[in-house]
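Q: Sequence in, structure out?
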Amino acid sequence: MARHRISRLTPFRLLFALYALLSCVYADSAMAAVTIRIQLSAQQMDVSVDGDHFATWAVSTARPGYQTPVGTYTPYVLERMHYSRLYNYTPMPYSIFYDTGYAIHGSYETSSLGRPASHGCVRLSPAHAQVLFQLIETQGRANTTIEIIR
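A: Exactly. Output:
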């Protein structure tokens, strides 16, 4: 008898599982579009949400001898606190990884913001990095575009 009862519940469970899966897949579609534009020449980041200006912040990108990649990206990993294995486990708060080995992240070297100073990542003040990180968490990585221009 228990076997018969379980089989009657199976279609309901399947529908519920399908609903849960589709909710996850399409959840980002109702969220706002976040655009992050980084101008290397100005050492500046402009953030917009659904086309409306949200913030402008000073950044530090690659210093001479290093490179910040130019292009359009979608973040693929968010880490609240990352430690760089390449650079003596330097803390990288609110890391937003957009290309292999490259991230937007907070930096405690705030005196260098506004001029090239990094090994290729895009540095922000920790407070601004936290705001950006939380915005992307809220609106979704899939709804976020990072544009890096010269």
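The beta strands are 34-39, 44-49, 52-58, 71-73, 77-84, 90-99, 102-106, 122-124, 144-149.
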